[in-house]
């Protein structure tokens, strides 16, 4: 009998905040010194719903309070296969209404930027894992679909 391997589970939530044809992205510095652009959001705490994680993480990374959270899609599957960061990922993607001023308190966030939808993909630097799974094109596919108005509810990764 072959037993399935056990992978650590990563649960995270991200929010598409759109204003005047622009998507809000956060900027972080990667281990290699490059700037990484990503959606506001992050890991869920044990016992926390993905929706609650989205609200908490957006506040921490941007300073904004979000309301009217609406589910868009779920990304699920093995991520970073064959690396030291391999995990089973469950990522919720939401839209919301944002209130307040941009004022991130997360020390890892270098800045927060409204980016025209047509320019979002040009900021994504695809590259090899393991340090940043967002560089994996499979993670950005739902964002590209969202920008095109063609988001699906489920994405296997």
Description:
The chain is α+β, with helices and mostly antiparallel strands and 157 residues long. It has one domain (14-156): Nucleoside Triphosphate Pyrophosphohydrolase (Alpha-Beta Complex), CATH 3.90.79.10. The chain has two helices and nine strands; from the N terminus they run βββββαβββαβ. Strand 2 (18-19) and strand 3 (22-29) form a beta hairpin. The relative contact order is 0.24. The model is unreliable at 129-134 (pLDDT under 50).
Notable traits:
157 residues, alpha+beta, Nucleoside Triphosphate Pyrophosphohydrolase, five-stranded mixed β-sheet, four-stranded antiparallel β-sheet, 2 helices, 9 strands
In short:
This protein is α+β, with helices and mostly antiparallel strands. It is built from two helices and nine strands.
């Amino acid at each position: 009998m072959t037993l399935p391997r056990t992978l650590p589970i990563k649960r995270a939530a991200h929010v598409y905040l759109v204003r005047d044809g622009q998507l809000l992205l956060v900027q972080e510095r990667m281990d290699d010194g490059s700037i990484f652009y990503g959606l506001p959001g992050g890991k869920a705490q044990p016992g926390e719903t993905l929706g609650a994680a989205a609200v908490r993480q957006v506040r921490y990374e941007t300073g904004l309070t979000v309301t009217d959270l609406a589910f868009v899609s779920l990304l699920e599957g093995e991520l970073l296969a064959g690396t030291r960061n391999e995990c089973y990922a469950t990522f919720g993607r939401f839209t919301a209404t944002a209130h307040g001023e941009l004022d991130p308190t997360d020390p890892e966030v270098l800045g927060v930027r409204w980016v025209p939808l047509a320019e979002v993909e040009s900021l994504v630097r695809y590259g090899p894992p393991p340090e940043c799974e967002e560089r994996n094109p499979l993670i950005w596919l739902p964002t590209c679909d969202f920008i095109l108005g063609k988001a699906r509810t489920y994405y296997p990764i």
